[in-house]
Write a structure and sequence with these properties.
The structure holds 2 protein chains of 2 kinds. By secondary structure, chain A is mainly alpha-helical. Chain A is about 75% helix and about 0% strand. Among the domains of chain A are: about 35-95, no CATH class; about 270-480, MetI-like (MetI-like fold, Orthogonal Bundle), CATH 1.10.3720.10. The relative contact order of chain A is 0.07. By secondary structure, chain B is of the alpha/beta class. Chain B starts with a helix and ends in a 29-residue tail after the last helix. In chain B, the strands form 3 sheets. In chain B, strands 1, 4, 5, 6, 7 and 13 form a 6-stranded mixed β-sheet that branches. Chain B has 2 domains: about 25-125 and about 225-330, Periplasmic binding protein-like II (D-Maltodextrin-Binding Protein, domain 2), CATH 3.40.190.10; about 125-220, D-Maltodextrin-Binding Protein, domain 2 (3-Layer(aba) Sandwich), CATH 3.40.190. Classes of the chains: A mainly alpha, B alpha/beta. The interface between A and B is large, with 38 and 46 residues.
Chain lengths: ~475, ~350
């Protein structure tokens, strides 16, 4: 302790003072970000004015929305009664009345549980692909899907026995995800057959027969790959499977079906419509176009002149033709080449051509990824003594695909949105097809914004999820610049 | 050598088989299939569109049902294939549909160049104008200098140009993609007048929030005979569709309705009615159908007048008057040749 005549010495630090009001908090943020210069101030004011105009113009319309009415006229009446003559209001009642057509098209109402269950299974089957074997993510995801599915099934008035069966199935799936997530991959493998069966119905045996063909490919491949190599082994497998599909399958599944008649009520694909149609076309084309695209990309970089020429020719031809041309080909031209009275499903034709179209774009995106890999990677693979397919599978493709993720996902998003173009060939897509049907009803004639907003919102949710997932994947796979 | 001869012969045989099956008549195909494939509109108010339960209904759809009833005995045995303006004629020509019933205008080039047969006219339409009442216009001839909302790529666009040219007037077109957009633009005041087929105008006007403030001008500037279409070359099938339609018209003329059909068949003494309903003669057999074909066609949705009244007539919200589509006995153009 010093004496009392010592000069004043501060013994402790002063507490930091708050900055002046203009230099802190919201005011500082506003000054820095909105009014930092004369130009920025003007732009800010203009922006605020624009936002105000848009909101003041559209908000009453949204707020005055009517949810329960049976026609446009009734909607207008209700709006006029509640908010005075001349007030405008959205007529969401149309969506309330016709949502099922936007979702399922003309699918029989009592069978709505089938597409709903197929959709839930699709998400589950994506889990192993999207999240590998992450136990926690898989459990959470399958659990959430199951709960939502049960709610949706309840919403579409599913019969009790079906409800119980689906509940059991998903209980098993969640349990598997919790205990042994790697077995979830079986859901993925079986999904094409199960999804087909749920959506189109018919005998159980035809999808089983189709899957048996793929099993044949697998068996042939594993038996012959050491002797014949990957491409020839696969080729032989495909030939054997084609013989099975074309000549033998019907003789086996036919008797089986008559002996044991298992199956669902058949639903024709001309009853598909709305988002059901968009998802059937979109998901099938997306999942089929990725492998085809990879093969095409490899073909284009191949040293074999014939393969290379075929791949280049295919890619350039398809990319040089608009999608609408392909759709018209599917709907009109193919019929001229096929024998008269062949019934070749229009949706199937459209799916095939959309897949082909998308595969050409995917091939180019992946080729970009391949081109971005340094030559050293290829040489390293060779130095390790890997053959071509091993090198592709273990070294080249994982890196090339990682680089191509943003491009691939944006192709997929584009493809999903392009499914609305099928309206041009008379299919009931959600945006134009169903909206046209709804507007043809005298009760809803003249409705304009509501269907677009509704359909646009759903498209946004789906495409935005895809885009967020691609960002998640990019982050997760980031191995460089740590 | 022998092998290649064999292969060649097999190919020729295969081609012949294809050619022969291509020649098979539409009637046989429909009967074998048990289903009539009918090309319809993707959605046109009153004429053809699926309702909330997915059942197709409308004035054109009723023709499909009548044909299915006549040929197959079941008005529900129809598979509807929605066709757009672009795909409709190709779908018919390529055999994807057996017949079209989707408000297609009968024109020279469609009949001859596209190799189609328009078998009848089930609705006489024509292009008209709708204007705001406060525009103070009472005739299309007064529309000089007007802005007009019109769908692109349709015959209505060409008709409009012809009409204004013929009358020495000028106009500014506001092109729109479809009917609902046209309605929106017109209501927003982007155009003074809206032009399309008169039936479409009436349906649009009926659903406007303030219908009383809009008038449809009296001039009809084009002829739009709409009717069912079949492929060139299968005359028997064309006759079946044509006479099924005429059976409906004759039924109205003779006062045969859905309700009194059985009674009329049992008690009528009118020779033509008896021939039509298969009591006398064998008219059906001449087309390859049975005797009661017309009876079933009428039973499906009633006679022509009943179909008109229940789908687009004055009692419906669309409220179209019979006009040109009244029977010839009532000053209209619907005239069926005799059943003899």
């Amino acid at each position: 302790m010093s004496n009392n005549n010592a000069s004043f010495v501060r013994t402790e630090m002063l507490g930091s003072q708050e900055p002046p009001t203009s230099e802190r908090g919201a005011i500082k943020w506003v000054r820095e970000n909105l009014f930092s210069s004369a130009l920025n101030s003007i732009l800010t004011l203009l922006g605020v004015a624009a936002i105000y105009l848009i909101i003041s113009g559209s908000l009453p319309w949204f707020l005055h929305g009517v949810w329960n009415a049976s026609s446009m006229g009734e909607c207008r009446q209700i709006v006029a009664d509640n908010y005075g003559e001349g007030a405008s209001g959205a007529c969401w009642a149309m969506i309330h009345e016709r949502w099922h057509q936007y979702m399922f098209g003309f699918y029989p109402r009592e069978l709505y549980w089938r597409p709903v269950t197929a959709f839930a299974l699709m998400i589950v089957s994506l889990a192993p692909v999207l999240y590998y074997n992450n136990r926690r993510t898989d459990t959470v995801m399958t659990g959430v899907v199951s709960v939502l599915l049960m709610l949706a099934l309840w919403g579409v008035n599913t019969p009790g026995s079906v409800f119980a069966a689906v509940f059991l199935l998903f209980a098993v799936i969640v349990a598997v995800a919790r205990v042994a997530p790697k077995y979830l991959v079986w859901v993925t493998i079986l999904f094409p057959a199960v999804g087909f069966l749920l959506l189109w119905g018919g005998s159980v045996w035809s999808p089983v027969g189709a899957m048996a063909g793929f099993v044949l490919i697998g068996i042939t491949y594993s038996l012959t790959k050491d002797r014949l190599g990957v491409p020839v082994g696969t080729g032989v497998g495909v030939i054997i499977a084609s013989i099975w599909w074309l000549f033998i399958q019907s003789h086996v599944t036919g008797p089986l079906a008559s002996a044991m008649n298992l199956g669902f009520e058949k639903v024709d694909s001309d009853q598909f419509g709305g988002f059901l149609l968009a998802f059937v076309i979109g998901v099938t084309a997306i999942s089929a176009s990725l492998p085809v695209g990879i093969l095409l990309a490899l073909g284009r970089r191949s040293d074999m002149p014939l393969i290379k020429a075929l791949s280049v020719g295919f890619i350039e031809f398809i990319r040089g033709v608009p999608l609408i041309t392909m759709l018209f080909t599917a709907s009109l031209l193919l019929q001229y080449f096929l024998p008269p009275q062949t019934k070749f499903d229009l949706i199937l034709r459209v799916i095939i051509l959309v897949t082909v179209f998308s595969a050409a774009y995917i091939a180019e995106v992946i080729r970009g990824g391949l081109a971005a890999l340094p030559k050293g990677q290829y040489e390293a693979a060779d130095a390790l003594g890997l053959d071509y397919w091993q090198a592709q599978r273990l070294i080249i493709m994982p890196q090339a695909l990682k680089i191509s993720i943003p491009g691939i996902v944006s192709s997929f998003i584009g493809l999903f949105k392009d499914t609305t173009l099928v309206a041009l060939v008379g299919l009931a897509d959600p945006l134009q097809g169903i909206t046209k049907i709804v507007r043809a009803d005298i009760n809803w004639k003249g409705i304009y914004w509501e269907p677009y907003i509704f359909v646009g919102l759903i498209f946004f949710v789906v495409c935005f999820s895809m885009s967020r997932y691609s960002m998640y994947l990019e982050n997760k796979l980031k191995r460089d610049h740590r | 050598m022998k092998k290649s001869v064999f292969l060649g012969a097999a190919t020729v045989a295969g081609l012949l088989a294809v050619a022969v099956s291509a020649q098979a008549s539409t009637l046989d195909d429909v009967k074998a299939r048990g289903e009539l494939i009918c090309g319809v509109n993707t959605g046109l108010t009153g004429f053809g569109a699926p309702d909330a339960n997915g059942n197709y209904q409308g004035f054109d759809v009723a023709i499909c049902q009548a044909v299915a009833a006549a040929v197959l005995g079941d008005p529900a045995a129809v598979k509807y294939v929605p066709t757009t303006g672009e795909t409709r004629f190709t779908a018919l020509a390529s055999g994807e549909v057996d017949m079209l019933a989707r408000n297609s205008t009968w024109t020279f080039s469609r009949d001859n160049d596209l190799k189609l047969d328009f078998v009848a006219v089930n609705y006489y339409d024509g292009q008209g104008f709708m204007v705001h009442k406060d525009l103070g216009v009472s005739s299309a001839k007064e529309l000089d200098g007007a802005t007009i909302c019109i769908q692109t790529g349709t015959t209505t666009e060409l008709n409009l140009a012809d009409f204004f040219k013929a009358n020495g007037m000028s106009y500014t077109p506001v092109t729109v993609a479809d009917d609902s957009e046209a309605q929106r633009q017109y209501l927003a005041g982007a155009c003074d007048a809206f032009t399309t087929d008169a039936s479409g105008l009436a349906a649009t006007r009926a659903t406007l929030p303030d219908a009383e403030n809009h008038i449809i001008l009296p001039e009809i500037i084009s002829k739009e005979p709409l009717g069912p279409v079949v492929r060139h070359g299968d005359n028997n099938w064309g006759d079946i569709v044509r006479w099924t339609y005429y059976a409906l018209v004759t039924a109205e003329e003779k006062g045969i309705t859905q309700a009194n059909l059985d009674e009329t068949a049992a008690t009528s003494t009118d020779p033509e009615t008896r021939r039509l309903l298969g009591v006398d003669g064998d008219l059906g057999a001449m087309m390859g159908l049975d005797a009661e074909w017309a009876k079933r066609a009428i039973a499906a949705n009633g006679n022509y007048g009943e179909i008109f009244a229940s789908t687009i007539g004055e009692a419906t919200p669309i409220g179209l008057a019979r006009g040109l589509n009244a029977l010839w006995t009532q000053g209209g153009l619907q005239y069926a040749p005799p059943f003899r």
